[in-house]
């Protein structure tokens, strides 16, 4: 663009950098920072080794299966689909129940 009053060209302002546009800032870390890493364990339907923070030892978990909404919904679905003789099967298999793991 040309400015009539100054008889010179006006240079446009440069576009912002990626960091300015995204609003990111650089974070400084101190060397004495302690990072605690917690790993989420995917618990299955059977016993498995785990670290007990109360006992402070490796143990095999004790497993208890409880009825859940999924158990009841599976039974109702089988009944509505016409498989009423099979509607009790979800109550017999641990796959359809909620699994709880305990320290022995």
Automatic annotation (TrEMBL):
Family matches, as PROSITE patterns: LITAF
Record's subcellular location: Endosome membrane; Late endosome membrane; Lysosome membrane
Annotated TM spans: 75-96
Residue ranges occupied by any LITAF domain in the UniProt entry: 29-104
Lipid bilayer topology: Peripheral membrane protein
GO MF annotation: an example: zinc ion binding
PANTHER family assigned to the protein according to its UniProt record, in alphabetical order: FI16602P1-RELATED (PTHR23292:SF6), LIPOPOLYSACCHARIDE-INDUCED TUMOR NECROSIS FACTOR-ALPHA FACTOR (PTHR23292)
Family to which the UniProt record says this protein belongs: Belongs to the CDIP1/LITAF family.
Protein name listed in UniProt: Putative lipopolysaccharide-induced tumor necrosis factor-alpha factor
Organism: Panstrongylus lignarius
């Amino acid at each position: 663009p040309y400015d009539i009053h100054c008889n010179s060209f006006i240079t446009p302002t440069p576009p912002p950098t990626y960091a300015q546009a995204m609003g990111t800032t650089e974070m400084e870390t101190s060397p004495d920072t302690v990072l605690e890493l917690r790993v989420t364990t995917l618990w299955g339907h059977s016993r498995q080794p785990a670290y007990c923070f109360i006992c402070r030892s490796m143990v095999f978990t004790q497993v208890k299966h409880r009825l859940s909404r999924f158990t009841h919904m599976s039974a109702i679905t089988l009944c509505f689909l016409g498989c009423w003789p099979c509607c009790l099967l979800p109550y017999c298999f641990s796959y359809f129940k909620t699994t709880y793991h305990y320290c022995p």
